[in-house]
Amino acid sequence: MLDTIPGVALAAIGLAVLAAYYRLRSDRPAMSFADGGTASVTVGLTGTEKPAGILRWFTTVDHKDIGLLYILFGTAAALWGATDAMMIRTELLVPESAVWNVETYNAVFTTHGFTMLFFFVTPVFTGIANYVLPLLLGADDLAFPRINAIAFWLLPPSLVMVRGGLITDVIGMVVGVLPVDVTLFEALEPVAMGWTMYTPLSVEMANPQISVALLGLHLSGVATTMAAINFIVTVFTERPPELGWDKLDIFSWNILVTSALILLAFPLLGSTLIMLLLDRNFGTTFFAIEGGGPMLWQHLFWFFGHPEVYILVLPAFGLVSLILPKFCGRRLFGFRFIVYSTIAIGILSFGVWAHHMFATGMDPRLRASFMAVSLAIAIPSAIKEFNWIATMWNGRLRLDAPLICIIGAMSTFVVGGITGVFLASVPVDLVLHDTHYVVGHFHLIVVGVIPLAMIAASYYWFPLITGRMYNQRLARAQTVLLIIGTFVTFIPLLILGYMGMPRRYGIYPTEFITLNQIASLGAFLLGVSVFLWLVNMIQSARVGPVVRDADVWNLKETGQFTREWQWFEDRLEERRGKVEPEGDPGSESETTRAVDPDDDAES
Amino acid sequence: MKRFPSAVAGGVSATTVMTLLLLLLEVETRSAMDIFYVIARFIGTPNDPAVGFALFVVAGVVAWPLLFLALEPYLPRGPDPAARGVVFASLLWVPFVITGRGDIGGPLLVLFSAYTLFAHWAYGFTLGAVYGRLLDRP
């Protein structure tokens, strides 16, 4: 019956029903305003409360709520991508293809790349920035609260589209219990072409899920671009008069530069994906031999792809630069030069894309110029690293979990960064291209620096976000385990690369078995560490000891009690003022879940 | 809410979470583990995964929550019911992984054991957390 009605009509009916429901609800707001506030129908009473329960999270335009949504979404994507990673390392425990077949392995490393790059790192950093950027600037919210909400809500559907093959499989399995034909659900296979989607393979593969995934990636690019525009406008226009460019905090600087890179790189990815979609479905020849040629794809893709790696890592540098001084009792050394180096990295990142293509037979003179710019990027990166070391010099280090994270991030950045300098050299790259050396190099950054900076931020701001404290001993253990796991996993990969083990193969010669098993062991350590972090966060948010003093990290004594903590202190004061008349706030037990609804995540 | 309905509500949410996690594992691994047969072996109907799965849902929604109600005061890691739920689910995982294993072996067994333990912990945590929340006790 259903197949005689066009899908458009069904969609229209669904939307009409939804619209009618919202129009005719008895408690519907009479009117709403651009800031997301509503006025109640009752004359003389104005509601300023957020709606209760789940509806609050679906309708929120508050930057703090959206920040939390981003962080939760990114964490969920990270756990999904980590499942892929565990599968990769399980497969590589043995040389032959004993666990999954090679097609599954191809799909797993492809989706691992997509999920981690587009749906884990950028959303989590966007979420952190969403939460703290307005507080750091002293703004009431981002410049465009509703665009902020739209930018977030575009992400879940895009994740569903990119990983659609698996999701339709799930639906097919559930429906398959009934006596129904499920071949429809099995048409979409998980994509298996590598995250770089190189043509001609990505044009030739028949799997229709590839086109769906391309649309999903395009959608995520649109969402990321919207968020970036929001941050740029916020940093430019939402600062109070006394906060000049010279006083802007380092994290906001990094988010600003990152957003500029997003604005310049992601629209290009979008256009490139559309060209590939047209090649796949409409017979255009952008990337065919008689058209632009397969190299065109690589140029267009990496013109986005290289700035993308800085889009991923610059917010992490910003967090390191922001949090490190707080635990050393000193100001950030060379603040101005860290800002300049951030901008320099941002600019240079657009001039190095072809170093991903040294092995494709480009003109040697072109290769030489890209090699020079790639080597030059090491300079601003080193400026950052040395300034961080200089910040720690003579400081009073407090080895709390955030600082352990940051020291670990600085260590992995040295190894991960310098291996990149080797790869920037053309003759070296020709040997190491497409080996596990490359995988080891960039994973030392994306598993070393990036998650460590995120986890440092999560531990640093956890009391501010939840009003509770986490288990600090567990946090320290988890952090150390994560750092050890990173080195144990990816140093063997560097060695494997020197020995010549290629990337993206589920099977390998037996002489590589020992190093692969060490790497897998390290990966399982990483898995345990992530699990411990998750337990600590969830349990502490539920039943952790309630924070009474806003100066959790003793920042006042070193004069680093920044705006966001000031805001937190004001909120605690406000709450105490509310509680005081009813009784002594100190009588409440510190380990039990308070039944006061105000104690949930933020109002 | 009363204790019994709270526990059953916890069971419904926990079984949903666990089923989703196991389904994800099943499709992720392209059915390398045949998780429905694992469940069927665990329940004791090794050749009929549909019946096995139905019994699995009944157990997850009613039987285990009731057992949890009875055992909860005696479990360690209290007073938080969610933490006790995790201990409870770990006990359930032992027979699950032994009887459900079938002929899974080698590296796959490592992943299978770790993932199913994680899924059981998610089950126990959700069971305890929802139960505690509905009872309005910490």
State the gist of this model:
Chain B: The chain crosses the membrane at residues 53-71, 83-102, 108-132. The complex is a heterodimer of chains A (603) and B (138). Chain A has 603 residues and is an all-alpha fold.
Name the descriptors.
heterodimer, A: 603 residues, mainly alpha, two-stranded antiparallel ribbon, 21 helices, globular, disordered C terminus, B: 138 residues, 5 helices, transport (chain A), transmembrane (chain A), heme binding (chain A), membrane (chain A)
Q: What does this protein look like?
A:
Chain B: InterPro entries: DUF6789. Chain B: Keywords: Membrane, Transmembrane, Transmembrane helix. Chain A: Pfam families: COX1. Chain A: This is Cytochrome c oxidase subunit 1. Chain A: It is a multi-pass membrane protein. Chain A: One of its GO terms (cellular component) is membrane. The complex is a heterodimer of chains A (603) and B (138). With 603 residues, chain A is an all-alpha fold. Chain A has a domain of 169 residues. Helices cover 67% and strands 1% of the residues of chain A. Chain A contains 21 helices and 2 strands. Chain A has a two-stranded antiparallel ribbon with strand order 1-2. In chain A, β1 and β2 form a beta hairpin. The longest helix of chain A is centred in the N-terminal third of the chain and has 36 residues. In chain A, 44% of the residues are buried. Chain B has 138 residues and is mainly alpha-helical. Chain B has one domain. The two termini of chain B are 14 Å apart. Chains A and B meet through α3, α4, α7 and α20 of A and α1 and α5 of B.
Describe the protein's topology.
The complex is a heterodimer of chains A (603) and B (138).
Chain A: H1 7-24, E1 31-32, E2 38-39, H2 53-59, H3 63-91, H4 102-137, H5 145-153, H6 155-162, H7 164-176, H8 183-186, H9 201-204, H10 209-237, H11 250-281, H12 294-328, H13 335-348, H14 364-376, H15 378-392, H16 401-424, H17 426-432, H18 436-466, H19 472-499, H20 513-543, H21 563-579
Antiparallel strand pairs in A: 1-2
Helix pairs in contact in A: 3-4, 3-5, 3-20, 4-10, 4-12, 4-18, 5-10, 6-10, 10-11, 11-12, 11-13, 12-13, 12-15, 12-16, 12-18, 13-15, 15-16, 16-18, 16-19, 18-19, 19-20
Chain B: H1 3-28, H2 35-43, H3 49-71, H4 81-100, H5 107-135
Helix pairs in contact in B: 1-3, 1-5, 2-3, 2-4, 4-5
